[in-house]
Amino acid sequence: MKLLGEKSLSKYIKIFLIILSIICFLCILLGGFYILTFWQTIFILPIAIPILLIYFTGILALILLVQFIGIFHCFEEGKLFVTENVSRLKISYICSFSIFSIYTISIIYFIYLMHDSMALYLFILPTITLFIIDFVFLIFAIGLVILTELYKKSIKYKEENDLTI
After folding, report:
1. What does the pLDDT read at residue 116?
2. Contact 92, 68 (CB under 8 A)
3. Most C-beta atoms within 10 A of its C-beta, which of 5, 26, 42, 72?
4. How many domains does the chain have?
């Protein structure tokens, strides 16, 4: 199956990302409604800060999904090496590094909460899970930085090649 153009793999990936972004948007709305409804109960809990931080990462993940929808839309139109994709990749790696940073702060906070032996049993699983997700977003962000630089060079070489013809 071809990657670029109509009836290509990029069209189906774009549709999947649109569905995923709608689900993410609804989760953000429901999470915001939950936080606003139970804010008095949430903010007396020691995990209020990580809940808000992780909620914010949902917003960043939605921005990330929207950027990838735009990239795959360009692929669907057959526009591969355009500066629009470079700017979308830049926004994507900024979002990924931000998510990595927020999860790192949450991990440090969970480790701080584990000084009590009872809290150790409550926070060990979320801490391990956040560490794995944190590592994935770090690798993803580094990959996006590399891909962005490759895209910049590819566009430069394409423009030079277009000028020589």
Report:
1. 65
2. yes
3. 72
4. 1
